[in-house]
Structures are given as structure tokens and as C-alpha cells.
């Protein structure tokens, strides 16, 4: 019995969410009295994979097949299933990312495993079955889910687990081949288009987010959001109507029908705080709201608030951060 | 081309979530149910593609008890040709995926579309499970879908960008914006929906692999600390020294 962790890499680096997943997996392994092995997907360097020792991983399996650099559902599923068989893994842990959820759901059928996505806490082991807390109702509630199968797959929500950092520990990196054939690459992407991210911070992975709503009045004012985000090292986001009218691209829209985020800091600028918007952001640790209407519903969900005009307040905040740094 | 569109019945997006006193079930009392917002993209896109091809059918499928029929009728009013309801409460994602896969196999559908996830359970699982049960590709989450003959070109969202993927039928795609502008039913649609076929079948398969022991609401916020707009810069000090997030 062992725990297998799926680690996503990008441009040679292990993603932040995968460091969280590795930490989660090694804590589950400790709970079960076993070790945690990782299988890496995407483009990785051996040095970065070895560093997963800091998150408690003892061994990393890596298939250097170049076509695995981009996400291919068929090939990733086969690779991870083969790694699970090799390691006799009873528990598989992955990120609740687009990749993790897509592969996790296929794997659960292939390996006859019980699957929980959107997991926010370590599981309780009830002697064979797991009970694990997951987000439900678009962040408006939680559900304790019981997984009864012999095999269990857990997809962990970003920013819900603190990554471990045991300095100096390293993992051994082992080359691994799942003997993939051309047929396994049938759904390989023809083209990958990366979008501009303000300040280079990816919204789904971000620790801090500065978000603008209709109160920003127009796309020409977005430099105020971007300046603050840049000073904070934050990603930018927006409310649904803002992306609906194309002031900002769709991949920045957060909420019930957009991206769900749970950063440490969420700053909402000129956003009313409609229930569908809150659904996607209210699991953020600290919420700051700037709105000129003191009755704006968002203040009820906020930790800190400024009743004021975004056009006056935002430059002051950016200035204050620059002074601090 | 035969399209199968899976829709789920979810609490309206403005619903305040509450549970039964034992916290074991969602409290449906007084709650309005709607077609899952993401499924509306799947439904509308299937209808658009059928119209563009000038032939074919769009079948809607729901796993649910009789109380979901108003929303099935709404999907028919929007433009689906017929509907199937698997007569069972949806127990978990695997249970639902098994029902969908069985119907898809029997009806030999070419394209199976659904929303990215349901806004109640937020599983983001059913599409992958259906693809695996049928042994066909799944593209999730898809932001664009075009068909040319038996080949589909899709845009799949990835963190920080998108990928262009080409797959041949049959395949499964889970849909999200900005795929299309979801349609609303018109008067003619509502009239004709009443006469369109709605078949009710009983569930099959091995059954659920997970269950919910208990639901809980998130802890209440402490209340907002207001900072005067004139001294907005003080907020930054509080975020560093008190909240310790910067
Ligand atoms: C099915 C469905 C799904 C939805 N999904 C989402 C979703 O995922 N995400 C989402 O965001 N919304 C979603 N919505 C929409 C949601 O209901 C709201 O319409 C939306 O969140 C409002 O966006 P907003 O706050 O930017 O705009 P508004 O409601 O117009 O609010 C603008 C705010 O800016 C303030 N303001 C104006 N000028 C200034 C100024 N100079 N300085 C400071 N403050 C100012 C105003 O006081 C106001 O509070 C959904 C709706 C439906 C029906």
C-alpha cells in the first residue's frame, strides 16, 4: 500500500498547487504508515523534482517523453494508472485543477476508485473508508464525503493546504515509462495559446488577487487595478458583467459561473458583491472591499473595507505599498 | 448527427443555502430549481450545431426524479427534440455517469455535451467518467466547439491559456462560457415543448461510490473593519501587521 501524488510541472518548475498536493499526500501517507511517491507530468527538471523531498515525497517517477509536455488526457491517464499499479497505490492525490479533475475522473473509472474533488482538508481514516471535507454549492457550503472503495482518489482545492518545507530533504528521481502508443495521444492539443497575465501571476494559482467590477467604469481605467496588482505581486480578476462586455477577458471572470479562487488576499474594487460573485471568492482568507456605496452587500462578506471612490482610493493603496517595499 | 445533452437540476443561483436539521440533506423548501447554468451552454451549442447542419437531433437527458420535469420541458422549449429522464435521485457523480454512459451507448449518440460542473455539487467529474466508461475522448472544460463532418475542433481552457484540440466523433465535451449565448424559450417553443416526447427509464449500473455524511455552512465572518477613505494607506499597514497577508 502506498500513496501516489500527481505533480504538475510547467516550464521545468513544479506548480505551487502541486507542492500543496505533495504535502497533502505525504501527510496522508504518514497517517497510513506508508510512503508517498510522486508521478510528474508536464515539463520538469530533475533538480526541481528532487526538491519534492521538502514536501515529504520519497521518490518521483518521471517519463521524459516529449509529447507529455502538454496535457493529453488519454496519455496522462494511462501514465498515472501505470504508476499507481507499479506502486500498489491505494490513495491517489492530485490538484483540483483542470488537469487534475479531468484525469482524476477517468482514473476513478479505470481503477474502480472512489473520487472526491474540491477537497479542502486532510481525510479522517475510519478504518478502511475515508471521510473528507469538500467545498460544495459553489463555495456556499461544505460536504463531508465518505469514500468507501478500496482505492481512493482525492483532488485537493488550491490554497486549502499549507505546503510543507523541510529544508534539505531530497527525493530520488526515477525514470519511468508507461509504454505509451500514438493512440494514447489522440486528444493531444494541436496548438497551445498562452494568454497575457498581468504581472505574470496566474489567477487560479494566485496567492493575492485584485479584482474590478462595473464600478471601474471602463477598460481604460484598468491600469489602476493592474498597478495595485503589480505592486502586490497579485493576479487580476473581474466580475461577470465586466467580462461579458469585454472590458476584460473571460479567463479573469471569478464567481459561481467563472473561476473559483481562494487566495490569502482578495481585494474587490467597485464590485457590489452579488451572491453569484461571492460564491466564487468567499473562501478567500482575507477579503478587502472598496465601494462608494456603504450599503453594498460585499461589505457583509469583507474583513476590511473602505467606503470610497475607487479612482481616489486605488492610487493611494498602490502608493502605500511602494512606500512599504 | 445525434447530440445528447445532459442537464442537471440545481438551486437557482441566488439561493441561500440551508440544510435539513440533521445536516444530511439540502433543504429544498421554497427553493426555485433551474437548469444548471453551464448546461445551458451545452444545450444551446448543440441546437446551434444541429441547425447549422440542417439535420440531426438533440436529445436532453436528466438523471432525476419527477420534480425535474419542468426544467426538462424548458430544455425542450429552448429547442431540444426529445428527452429522457432516468428516474432516480442522483446519488453521486459515478452513479450519474453510469446512467449517461448506458443511454449514450444504447442510442449511439455522436456528441455528448454537458456543463463543466453542477453549481450544487461542483464535482467536475461526470464528463471524464462518461468518457472513460465509453472509451472515448473527453474535452474539459471546452470554451468553443465547431464541427466539420465527423471532426470537432474545440478550445479547452488550461491554466493561463487555452489549447486547440481536434477529436473525431464520438466524444464528450463539458462546456463553459464563452461558447455561445444561452437561449431562452420563446412562446412557440413553450407551446411545442408540451407535445415533444419525454421518455422515463429506470436506472442501471453498480451504483454510487461515495456518499455525503453531513453538510456544513462556512463559519461566519467577524464583521468588517472600516478604514476612512482619506487614510486609505493605513489599510496596507493593517494587511501587513494585523492580517499578515502581505
Ligand atoms: C446565472 C448567473 C450566474 C452569475 N455568475 C456570476 C459570476 O460567476 N461572477 C459574477 O461576478 N457575477 C455573476 N453573476 C452576476 C451577478 O448577479 C452580478 O450581476 C454581478 O456580480 C455584478 O457585478 P458588479 O458588482 O461588477 O456590478 P454592479 O452590480 O453594477 O456593481 C458595481 C458596484 O460598483 C460600485 N461603484 C460604482 N462606482 C464606484 C466608484 N467610483 N468607486 C467605488 N465603487 C463604485 C457600486 O456601488 C456597485 O456596488 C451571475 C448572474 C447569474 C444570473
What does this structure look like?
The complex is a heterodimer of chains A (325) and B (246). Chain A has 325 residues and is an alpha/beta fold. In chain A, 27% of the residues lie in helices and 29% in strands. Chain A has 8 helices and 16 strands. In chain A, helix 3 crosses helix 4 (98-110). The radius of gyration of chain A is 21 Å and the shape is globular. Chain B is an alpha/beta fold and 246 residues long. Chain B is built from 6 helices and 13 strands. In chain B, strand 8 (151-158) and strand 9 (161-168) form a beta hairpin. The longest helix of chain B has 17 residues, at 37-53. The chains are: A alpha/beta (325), B alpha/beta (246). Flavin-adenine dinucleotide binds next to helix 6, helix 7 and helix 8 of chain A. The site of flavin-adenine dinucleotide has 25 residues of chain A, from helix 6, helix 7 and helix 8. Chain A: Belongs to the ETF alpha-subunit/FixB family. Chain A: It comes from Hymenobacter cellulosivorans.
Amino acid at each position: 500500500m502506498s500513496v501516489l501524488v500527481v505533480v504538475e510541472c510547467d516550464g521545468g518548475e513544479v506548480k505551487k498547487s502541486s507542492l500543496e498536493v505533495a504535502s497533502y499526500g505525504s501527510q496522508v501517507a504518514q497517517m497510513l504508515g506508508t510512503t508517498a511517491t510522486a508521478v510528474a507530468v508536464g515539463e520538469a527538471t530533475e533538480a526541481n523534482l528532487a526538491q519534492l523531498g521538502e514536501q515529504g515525497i520519497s521518490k518521483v517517477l518521471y517519463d521524459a517523453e516529449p509529447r507529455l509536455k502538454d496535457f493529453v488526457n488519454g496519455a496522462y491517464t494511462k501514465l498515472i494508472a501505470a504508476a499507481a499499479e507499479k506502486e500498489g497505490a491505494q490513495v491517489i492525490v492530485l490538484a483540483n485543477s483542470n488537469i487534475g479533475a479531468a484525469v482524476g475522473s477517468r482514473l476513478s473509472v479505470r481503477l474502480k476508485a472512489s473520487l472526491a474533488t474540491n477537497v479542502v482538508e486532510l481525510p479522517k481514516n475510519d478504518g478502511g473508508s475515508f471521510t473528507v471535507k469538500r467545498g460544495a454549492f459553489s463555495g456556499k457550503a461544505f460536504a463531508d464525503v465518505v469514500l468507501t472503495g478500496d482505492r481512493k482518489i482525492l483532488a485537493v482545492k488550491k490554497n486549502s493546504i499549507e505546503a510543507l518545507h523541510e529544508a534539505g530533504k531530497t527525493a530520488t528521481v526515477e525514470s519511468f515509462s508507461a509504454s505509451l502508443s500514438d493512440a494514447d495521444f489522440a486528444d493531444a492539443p494541436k496548438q497551445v495559446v498562452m494568454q497575457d497575465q498581468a504581472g505574470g501571476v496566474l489567477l487560479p494559482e494566485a496567492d493575492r488577487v485584485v479584482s474590478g467590477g462595473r464600478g471601474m467604469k471602463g477598460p481604460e481605467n484598468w491600469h489602476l487595478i493592474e498597478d495595485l496588482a503589480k505592486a502586490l505581486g497579485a493576479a487580476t480578476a473581474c466580475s461577470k458583467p465586466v467580462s461579458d462586455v469585454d472590458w476584460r477577458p473571460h479567463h479573469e471572470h471569478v464567481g459561481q459561473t467563472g473561476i473559483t479562487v481562494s487566495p490569502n488576499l482578495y481585494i474587490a474594487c467597485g464590485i457590489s458583491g452579488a451572491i453569484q460573485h461571492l460564491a466564487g471568492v468567499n473562501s478567500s482568507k482575507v477579503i478587502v472591499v472598496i465601494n462608494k456605496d456603504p450599503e453594498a452587500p460585499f461589505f457583509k462578506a469583507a474583513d476590511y473595507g473602505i467606503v470610497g471612490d475607487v479612482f481616489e482610493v486605488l492610487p493611494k493603496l498602490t502608493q502605500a505599498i511602494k512606500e512599504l517595499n | 448527427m445525434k447530440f445528447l445533452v445532459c442537464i442537471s437540476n440545481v438551486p437557482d443561483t441566488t439561493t441561500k443555502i440551508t440544510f435539513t436539521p440533521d445536516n444530511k440533506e439540502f433543504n429544498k423548501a421554497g427553493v426555485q430549481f433551474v437548469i444548471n447554468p453551464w448546461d445551458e451552454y451545452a444545450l444551446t451549442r448543440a441546437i446551434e450545431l444541429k441547425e447549422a447542419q440542417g439535420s440531426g437531433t438533440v436529445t436532453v437527458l436528466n438523471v432525476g426524479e419527477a420534480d425535474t420535469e419542468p426544467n426538462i420541458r424548458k430544455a425542450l422549449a429552448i429547442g431540444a427534440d426529445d428527452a429522457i429522464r432516468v428516474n432516480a435521485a442522483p446519488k453521486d457523480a459515478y452513479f450519474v455517469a453510469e446512467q449517461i454512459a448506458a443511454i449514450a451507448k444504447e442510442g449511439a449518440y455522436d456528441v455528448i455535451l454537458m456543463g463543466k460542473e453542477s453549481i450544487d455539487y461542483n464535482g467536475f467529474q461526470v464528463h471524464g467518467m462518461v468518457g472513460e466508461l465509453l472509451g472515448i475522448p473527453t474535452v474539459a472544460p471546452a470554451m468553443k466547439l465547431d464541427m466539420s463532418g465527423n471532426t470537432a475542433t474545440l478550445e479547452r481552457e488550461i491554466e493561463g491559456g487555452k489549447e486547440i484540440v481536434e477529436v473525431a466523433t464520438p466524444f464528450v465535451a463539458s462546456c463553459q462560457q464563452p461558447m455561445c449565448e444561452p437561449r431562452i424559450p420563446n412562446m412557440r417553443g413553450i407551446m411545442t415543448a408540451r407535445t415533444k416526447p419525454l421518455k422515463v427509464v429506470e436506472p442501471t449500473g453498480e451504483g454510487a461510490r461515495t456518499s455525503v455524511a453531513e453538510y456544513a455552512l462556512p463559519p461566519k465572518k467577524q464583521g468588517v473593519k472600516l478604514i476612512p477613505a482619506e487614510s486609505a494607506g493605513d489599510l496596507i499597514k493593517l494587511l501587513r501587521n494585523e492580517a499578515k497577508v502581505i
